[in-house]
Fold:
Amino acid sequence: MDAWLVRIETKLRAQEGMELVQVAILIAIAIFLGLIFKDKIGKFVNNVFGDLLKADF
Structure:
């Protein structure tokens, strides 16, 4: 019974490690894309908030 629990624990820890690596890669890609498209993203956000401020609701 103990060997079975050890195997499950080992598998779960391996999966957590892979999930952390995947999250780190996705965050790095998001930062990279944000740096590339910084000007376009800024213009988009300014347009959206400008339109929201002009709206009468």
